[in-house]
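hey can u check if this looks right to u? its 280 residues, i copy pasted from the old doc so theres a chance i mangled smth
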Amino acid sequence: MDDTKKIIWLASYPKSGNTWFRAFLTALLNPDLKEVDINNMAQTTIASSRQLFDEVSGIESSDLTADEIDSLRPRIYRQNAFESNEVIYHKIHDAWDVLPDGTALFPMEATKGVLYFIRNPLDVAISFANHLNTSIDRTIEIMNNPTYAFCEKNSKLYNQLRQRLHTWSGHVKSWTEDSGLPLMVIRYEDMLTDTLAIFSKAVSFIGLDQSEVNIKKALDLSSFEQLRKQEETKGFSEKSAKSERFFRKGIAGDWKTMLSKEQVGRIKEAHSLTMLKFGY
């Protein structure tokens, strides 16, 4: 491929359907698979991988500050795209951002497109709380915190780089309004209720020529039941060490029985405009 626009960002606020799509894409790109190994979805590496940064840059990221790493990340993605002979799929939880010098953290010139996965924040709060092994009240605080980031403690060397999430609404806005990148927004709820149609549209958007038969097979191999069963038998390397399981329920509307009126009110007060825009 001569075009440098090779990266498809599989972007989402945590716990919004990103991993489900990655499992599906793994099955679709490897038609001989009899099972999707949830611990080997290498074709959808997370963009914040410290190993990816070190290998492409030739620099030990452990020798740099988080700000110094951020200043180099756009070059890493451009170089990776330039050197690749095929499309690159990157899972990503960072909010789309601009560095102090005005450079986009995730450069347009390396980007083929963005699939942005969005989920009702009322349900996100429950699932994210489980992932973080913290209370729903604390999780709501995190979702409303514009400075919240993964992997930012200086006292620990994580296997991922710092990822700034912003607020839930800020994250959504950053990718869907501010980035200016070619974009398809996918609601988690639609993935559940109109599965074949939504996944087929996503496949078309990212430029894959796949038959309905192949898409259905990939969906069968990546069903929530299959993913949860695998986690139960083999474990899941991406599960937080703090949580009991990664694949919890995989449903929409859990908030109706799990959240108090006060918790619902706090989320709606902070995110009502974005929720209304996307039908929540």
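DSSP finds twelve helices and six strands in the chain.
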